[in-house]
Structure formats: structure tokens, C-alpha cells
Write a structure and sequence with these properties.
alpha/beta, 13 strands, 2 domains, 14 helices, 4-stranded antiparallel beta sheet, homodimer, Aspartate Aminotransferase, domain 1
């Protein structure tokens, strides 16, 4: 038999590749090329990781025979109890009263999206997502073969009936609504209080769950906090056990991504089902990493968040300043109050992917073209710029070059 | 809204619970109860973990700024290259020539089963599994809503046509064949060379993949090594790129489970699709744990395997000796050449679950009743006994009590 003859289900992989996953991965490799100024990766700056505190935590846990035996052994699927209790306190500080039965540990918030898709989406069901939205959410949901319909969070959504009817025509029902409520990837925008309440109205009318991806929530640089969708849901429903929102949190953007520790917070009855999904998928998250994350969060979560906010704010300011200085007329962009991304809209005629090809060739500047971030209604004159890994000087140089190239393309050069 | 009104898909969770997952989890909690002699958990003895070597690896990686920055950062979905290269050498030592494009790192072998189910099983497809088989494989596959048909590995399988026809009647096709080839969980038995070749014949006739779960393969205490199914497949097909077998390996039973590091080895074209599944599910395994596992495997894989074999062999011998001394006539059991389990068959009239209830109450001895390990054709007069966590003295005491109780039940007391 040749490899070509192996019978597999192409559909999953081809749907994933439709989202340009491999294109994105190729782009990210550019980060390693000397001379390239990259605004492509949406990843934290390793210079900000609390490496010493993490190292001390591994060392102290492994130096204690009883703790080491526990930290290296199989453990429960819902996660390490002291860490879940720390997260309970953390959620309370965000306006979400809950207890440890409302928390399950996941391998980053990404795994939460996968399990929620597994539980709430069947083939032909419809997922409501913003356009653009986080590529990885679409990839996670795609495995369960949904269709997508577009949430218009700020613009005023369509009627519940119109969402339900289109889902029915497509052979399923609306399964969930997904949003990155704060400093979204890729747009950098934050969903207003009014739009959050309207989304909860819509979800109530459709009787669906709301998936709140809180990956960037802690990274606010200015402006007013907006309560998590889950907090608003609890305020109206009377308690987390009556809520329909599943909050996906992570330590990836505050402490470090590579321990792969995140969480889902929601009604305990749903969490119990997600725990069964976790058990079936990979048994549990690395026990030792959960114990380390607990110790690191206890010791330095607040200090670390303060430090990250300071560093990234400076870079965001540099990016917004450079865009204002260097971009030609007809180019617009978002003004994020936090997170890692600015979303740029080019004149209609300019294609982000074509700009990228020329930008790498002529300017040694990388970014992610916007087309990849759409479940439906793809627009090609968009760019995602990340400022998280660059110095203010690199940002000014890179945006200067990019602005010059856009000016050339606008002028037909 | 009440929690009861939340719309979720019950089917996945209820199918999982049909497998008695929560029953099993409750049982495992007994491990922590003082006074209970537990043969329930199939988990390694933490006293055998290479804790010092693991601690040294974390410390040395985190003490080097460049390595620390890499180890704490996002990384590629296919896994840490030096670890994949170590696994390439390891697979070669098992008779499987391959390169790093044939290896993807997974969160234990469990996650390999989940991704393979995701790729090769659609609702109504049929998975071929032995009866009994590993509970966790059934849980992983259940999320993709397959039916099961029974592999009779040693007894001579049915014709390919009969498997294909039943699968068609059920509304799908045969998606895969799954086996634990060596020292299976729960039976302790090893599939013979002849049965492995016959399975490959069957898989070739059905044009399906074979999933070889190698969780216990390194833990052989006596008898002759049998080549991995993947090695036999390569020998007949001419190379790994022409093979249909996906080998799921793990460090959980040789080094330590809680770092959650395992791998899939197979044709690179299939691995590339599994990498997309990994990216969508949780991006990648904990970078630091992969780097640590590489360092630990380099330093002490062989020594660790030798140490584990010695310790577990003594316990297996104690278990087989105690069963021979204490079990009444009419009780039979397997004679494993490795692994962690002995599979006991009681007289037909005795129900393993009822025996467990009395055993805990009257003897303070725990085990897993066999009914949970069947995809089809459930048998209730079976027990799974694990000797991995008990001393020879505990084994003799526990089996002595259990044998006395079985004798009572046989005698109608």
C-alpha cells in the first residue's frame, strides 16, 4: 500500500488548512530569521517570564519527597485542587463568585475551546463568532464540523429568529456563541458593556452557551475594566449554577505559556461533563506544572501582571504612534486598550497577503494578513500587527518601512 | 434559567459514563484510604520515579537564560525536535526505522488515541477492539460516536467481509483496529507474532489503520520480545511511509506519567494531519516538560527501565504465587510476561462488582471489576488486579483475603 491509499478523513485537515494554519505557521518561522522585524507572532516576550520564580517552584516541589511523588504521578482530570482554589479567588476578584467545582484546569485556554466544541457542536450545527475572530478557536471548533454565522457584537446583532432559522436551514441548531471580549485577537478591540448584555439577551433567546475567551483580559493598559460576560450573566441569572457562560482563562499571557495551564469556569454541571472530556482526551494536565503554576501565581501573579502591563503598554504606544506617523491616508487601525494586537484596514484595493509578500521581500517586515481570521465573510484588506515582541525602536523602524510600502502600493507602484 | 435547562449534548457524557468512568474514578480514590490494600490503580510506583534526574533537568534548563526563554515559550505543535530525534533512535532499537517527520509528541499515549479517533472515526463508523480492552481507549473513541466490533486476536478473526458488512449495516465503515499488543490493560496478555501478522492481513483487506498502544511495551520481565506491529508492518510494506500502523508510545510507565509526554510514530503524511489536530486541540505539549523528558531519557532511560523491570517483576511473581496459593478451584487468571495487570476469571455465577462491594466491606481489598473493559459482549465475572503499587507482603495478604471471600461466595456464603 502507498501512503496515498491510506484511508483517512480528509475533511478535518482540509478544513483546518482552509484557515491557512500552515500559512500562519510558516509565517511564525520568520521570527527566527535574522534581519526580519516581525509583527506576526502574538506571543509574550520571554524576557518578561518570571523564570527565577518558576525555577524555584520546580526545585522546591521536587526537593520534597512527598510533594515530588505527588507532582510526578497521575492525578485527577479536573485539576490540582490548590490551583483551582487560587483560581476561585482570582475569579472572585473579577466579579465571579464560584467554588472549586466551577473550575477545571485545561492545557491553556485553547484546550478549553476544543472541549467546549466537542460538547456543544455536532456536524451541521452553527457556531456564532465575530468576524474577524481568533483563528485557533475556528481550528478547535472545525474538528466538530460546524457552520459559522456572524456575531455583530457592537453593530447590533440580527434577531434570534434569523440566527435560529439559518442554523435550521443548514441542518442543525445554533450550538454556541464565541467571543474574545477583551483586546481581541486579532482586532485588539474590547466588547462594550451594552454589547455584552445584548449578547446575553441573544444567548438567552437562543438558549445557547456563551464562550468567553479571556486570554488577554489581564493585560489592560488604560481605560475602564468591563466586567466579564460571566459576571454579567451571574448578575442576571442569580448565580454561577444558573449561568450559561463558560469562561476560558489562561496563565499563558500573564506568567508563561509553555507550562500549558489554563482553566474553564462555569456551572458545575457543565464542568463535570467537561471533566469527562478531559479524562478521555489526555487524562489530566501535567501535575507538576499545575503545582508550579499554583506556587508562582501565589508568589507573583499581581507583580507579574503589573510588570507585563508596563512593558506592553510602552510597545502599544509606540505602535500607535508609528502608525499615525508613517501610514498614508486611507489606512485606519484600531486603538486597543490592552492585549497584543492592532488591526489595520487598508484601502479596499490592497490585498494583505500580497502586501506581506512584498513586505518581506522589500522591507524585511512580517505580519499576519487578515484573511485568515474569518469564519465567514472574509475580507482581504486587513493586517494583524502584534507589538508584544518588539522594542519601540523596532516598531518605529518596521512601521516606517511598512507605511512606505503601503504608500507605494496606494500610488500604484 | 436553571442549570437543568442548559442545552448540551448529553450523548457524549452519557456514553462515557456507560463505561463506568466515574465508578472507576471513585474506586481509585480508595487508594488514599488508610487500611485498604488496593489492586485497583494501574499506575506506576512513585518510589521508582527518577526524581533527582528530573529535578536536575528542570534546574539546568531554567538556569540557562537562552534555554529557559525557549522552554517557557510557545513552541511547535509537532514537538521538541531533540526529543523527537531521541524517539527516532528509540524506535530504531525496536525495529522501526523512521525519522523525525514520523514522530509527533502527545500528552501521554492517551492523547494519541484521542487524535487518532478524531481523524479516523465518524459517527456510525466501527472501531475494532479486543474484548476486554483499555477503558481509556473506549472513552477517547466514544467522543467520535463509533460503534464497536470485536477483534479476536488469538482466536482467529472473522473474515474481513463480515467486519465490513456489519459496519455497513450500522451506517458507516470500519475506521480502525486498536490493540494493546504487549501486556495489555486489563488482560496482561501479549499478542503473538502470528496474531499480529493476521491482524495486519485483516487491516490490509479492510484498508484501515492499526492503532498499536504500546503503553507497557518496555516492561517485559521474561519471555521473548515480540516485534511491534509497526515493525512487522514496515517489514511487509517496505517502509514506514507505506505502513498503516500508528504506534502510540509514552514515558508514563518508564520515567514518570505526570509530565504528560508520549508520542505517535507513523507515516509522515498521517503525522502531518495529526499535527493539525494537535494544534487545534492545545497548540503543543508543555515545552519545558519535553525538554526535561529529553534530558532525562538521554541520561537514564535504560537504567530506569532496568530498575522498573526488576521491581515490578518481583511484584508480578508475588501476585501469581499468591493467586496460586489462595484462590479456590474454578478461578483462573492470566500469566503476564510484563506490564502491571493480572486478569482473573471467576466462576460464571460470581459478579465482579458484587465481589468488590463485599471485598471492600469485609476485607479492605480493592480492585477493578471487569465489566468496565468491554466495548461489546460485556462479561461480569472478571477482575483486573494490578500489582504495581503493592509490596509482595501486601499482595500476599490481600490476595489471601480475596481468595477466602471468593471461596465463601462459591460456597454460597
Amino acid at each position: 500500500m502507498t501512503a496515498e491509499k491510506i484511508v483517512w478523513q480528509d475533511s478535518f485537515a482540509s478544513r483546518a488548512s482552509r484557515m491557512n494554519a500552515s500559512e500562519i505557521r510558516e509565517l511564525l518561522k520568520l521570527l527566527d530569521q535574522p534581519g526580519i522585524i516581525s509583527f506576526a507572532g502574538g506571543i509574550p516576550d520571554p524576557a518578561l517570564f518570571p523564570t527565577q520564580v518558576i525555577g524555584d517552584a520546580y526545585a522546591s516541589i521536587l526537593a520534597d519527597p512527598a510533594r515530588a511523588a505527588q507532582a510526578l504521578q497521575y492525578s485527577v482530570s479536573e485539576g490540582y485542587l490548590p490551583l483551582r482554589r487560587w483560581i476561585v479567588e482570582h475569579m472572585a476578584s473579577l466579579g465571579v463568585p464560584c467554588d472549586e467545582h466551577n473550575i477545571m484546569i485545561t492545557a491553556g485556554s485553547q484546550q478549553g475551546l476544543d472541549f467546549i466544541g466537542k460538547l456543544f457542536l455536532s456536524p451541521h450545527d452553527t457556531a456564532l463568532v465575530a468576524a474577524p475572530t481568533y483563528l485557533g478557536a475556528l481550528q478547535a471548533f472545525n474538528a466538530y464540523e460546524p457552520r459559522y454565522d456572524t456575531l455583530m457584537l457592537e453593530g447590533g446583532n440580527r434577531t434570534p429568529q434569523s440566527y435560529a432559522e439559518l442554523a435550521k436551514v443548514r441542518g442543525g441548531r445554533v450550538g454556541l456563541a464565541y467571543l474574545v471580549a477583551d483586546f481581541a485577537n486579532p482586532s485588539g478591540e474590547t466588547v462594550s458593556l451594552e454589547a455584552r448584555e445584548a449578547l446575553l439577551d441573544l444567548a438567552e433567546a437562543l438558549n445557547i452557551v456563551v464562550v468567553e475567551d479571556a486570554a488577554y483580559q489581564a493585560l489592560r493598559y488604560d481605560g475602564e475594566n468591563v466586567p466579564p460576560v460571566l459576571a454579567l450573566d451571574i448578575a442576571r441569572s442569580g448565580g454561577i449554577e444558573h449561568s450559561r457562560t463558560l469562561y476560558c482563562g489562561t496563565f499563558s499571557k500573564t506568567l508563561a505559556p509553555a507550562l500549558r495551564v489554563g482553566w474553564i469556569c462555569g456551572a458545575s454541571e457543565v464542568i463535570a461533563k467537561l471533566v469527562l472530556a478531559k479524562q478521555a482526551a489526555d487524562l489530566h494536565c501535567a501535575t507538576i506544572n499545575q503545582a508550579v503554576m499554583h506556587q508562582v501565581a501565589e508568589a507573583s501573579y499581581d507583580a507579574q501582571v503589573t510588570r507585563n502591563r508596563g512593558a506592553y503598554k510602552e510597545r502599544r504606544d509606540a505602535m500607535l504612534g508609528a502608525l499615525a506617523r508613517h501610514m498614508p491616508e486611507g489606512v485606519t487601525w484600531t486603538k486597543p486598550e490592552g492585549g497584543m494586537f492592532v488591526w489595520v484596514t487598508l484601502p479596499e484595493a490592497i490585498d494583505g497577503a500580497k502586501l506581506l509578500a512584498r513586505s518581506i521581500e522589500e522591507c524585511q517586515v512580517a505580519f499576519v494578513p487578515g484573511g485568515a481570521f474569518y469564519g465567514e465573510g472574509r475580507r482581504d484588506n486587513k493586517l494583524r500587527l502584534s507589538y508584544s515582541l518588539s522594542t519601540p525602536e523596532q516598531i518605529d523602524t518596521g512601521i516606517g518601512r511598512l507605511g512606505g510600502l503601503v504608500g507605494d502600493m496606494v500610488a500604484g507602484r
